[in-house]
């Protein structure tokens, strides 16, 4: 079981959820390689690329991001993305535990439109994530077409 009891985690989650707050993302990381306790590694006001720049290839982490999605010129919706990050240098035992810990973390980072599992920073391409969000969002009145 993952320990998500650090009060900073809940506070950062509320900041990301609040449209009036500039904080748009957060990263949770394990305290150590052998610990199941998660802590707030960082949070920020930049976009997805700012989030990606903070990820460590030797760490496993969970992320939560607020993005604005527009299907046309008239509608802009706020969507939230839950990211499970497993860097290329993460040890086997941490990888094994991570899949079990996702459900514990999602009890704290509760509301999201899509889940993204990434092992490489290239998998966190903003256009691809926006496309996934549009697909998950239902009706698309934009003229752009997407391969389904």
Automatic annotation (TrEMBL):
<dbReference type="InterPro" id="IPR029006">
    <property type="entry name" value="ADF-H/Gelsolin-like_dom_sf"/>
</dbReference>
<dbReference type="GO" id="GO:0030864">
    <property type="term" value="C:cortical actin cytoskeleton"/>
</dbReference>
<keyword id="KW-0963">Cytoplasm</keyword>
<dbReference type="GO" id="GO:0051015">
    <property type="term" value="F:actin filament binding"/>
</dbReference>
<dbReference type="GO" id="GO:0030427">
    <property type="term" value="C:site of polarized growth"/>
</dbReference>
<dbReference type="Pfam" id="PF00241">
    <property type="entry name" value="Cofilin_ADF"/>
</dbReference>
<feature type="domain" description="ADF-H">
    <location>
        <begin position="1"/>
        <end position="134"/>
    </location>
</feature>
<keyword id="KW-0009">Actin-binding</keyword>
<keyword id="KW-0206">Cytoskeleton</keyword>
<dbReference type="GO" id="GO:0005884">
    <property type="term" value="C:actin filament"/>
</dbReference>
<comment type="similarity">
    <text>Belongs to the actin-binding proteins ADF family. Coactosin subfamily.</text>
</comment>
<protein>
    <submittedName>
        <fullName>1883_t:CDS:1</fullName>
    </submittedName>
</protein>
<dbReference type="GO" id="GO:0030833">
    <property type="term" value="P:regulation of actin filament polymerization"/>
</dbReference>
<dbReference type="InterPro" id="IPR002108">
    <property type="entry name" value="ADF-H"/>
</dbReference>
């Amino acid at each position: 079981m993952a320990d998500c009891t650090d009060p900073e985690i809940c506070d950062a989650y509320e900041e990301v959820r609040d449209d009036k707050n500039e904080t748009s993302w957060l990263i949770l990381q394990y305290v150590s390689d052998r610990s199941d306790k998660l802590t707030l590694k960082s949070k920020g006001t930049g976009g997805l690329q700012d989030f990606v720049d903070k990820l460590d290839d030797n760490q496993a982490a969970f992320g939560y991001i607020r993005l604005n999605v527009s299907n046309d010129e008239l509608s802009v919706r706020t969507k939230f993305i839950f990211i499970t990050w497993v860097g290329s240098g993460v040890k086997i035992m941490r990888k094994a535990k991570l899949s079990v810990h996702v459900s514990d973390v999602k009890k704290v980072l509760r509301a999201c439109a899509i889940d993204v599992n990434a092992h490489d920073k290239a998998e966190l391409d903003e256009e691809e994530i926006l496309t996934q969000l549009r697909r998950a969002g239902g009706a698309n009145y934009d003229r752009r077409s997407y391969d389904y």
